[in-house]
Request: fold
Amino acid sequence: MIKLNDHIATLSHVMFSTDDVAEWSGVYQWLQIAASIESISLDTIKYNNSFGWCAPSDEFDLARDKLLPVFTEKLAIFNFVWGALESTIDIVKPPKNPDKSKRGKVRDACFWLNTFNPSDTIPELLLQTTIFRELAQKSIGYERVETRIGELKEFGVSGVGLYAVYELRNLFAHGSMEFPYPDGENHPVCPEISLVETATRIVLFSIQLLMLKHFPNPDDYEVFLTTVVGNIDGDIKLADALRTCHLEANQLEAQLTLI
Reply:
């Protein structure tokens, strides 16, 4: 797959290539900001009154000072992409869950994604959902993610990933998220960084599937698209663009041959 920021930008370009630019302009802006985030600067030592008193403690604090800017950058990107998702749901208006007790804006979208069979969904979504589950098992405070991924019967292979990621979003929105720590040797690494990046991919794939549901006859809807990374250049069916915009040029060519 192409890099995360390139994936975000390319999806925004797909939206901009349709005849419904005005309707999708809000989603486009959320994605453009998300794709434009390059770094976040933090200085966690600045207000740490205990720094300088204990060498082992200082080593830990310095490692975390390197770790947290990377994590918060990924988290910021995730939140803007989540904003794009919510704006997308407002446009596509998924049907309500037949069970009134299980209705909700995002939950209805997850339930609707269940209509994609394993054979006609985006393959990379299934892989990222598996990776997300594995990373959640390695991270602190994400036990409920495991529970949500277990609800495969209700949301299917195409919707259960977004339903699990919804828990990550709730942890952040309600102030319950655990911020990561360096590893046991004070290296500035942690599974949470990959966890958030994988969650962002799942949200992007979910937007792509929701757009496939929204546009009438996307297999016959031709758009002209030129991407910054050069994986798509020229006329392409909207359905093909939405199913492959995250792929490298060589991967995309192979995938289009199968389609």
The first strand starts at residue 222 and ends at 226. The radius of gyration is 20 Å. The mean pLDDT is 89.
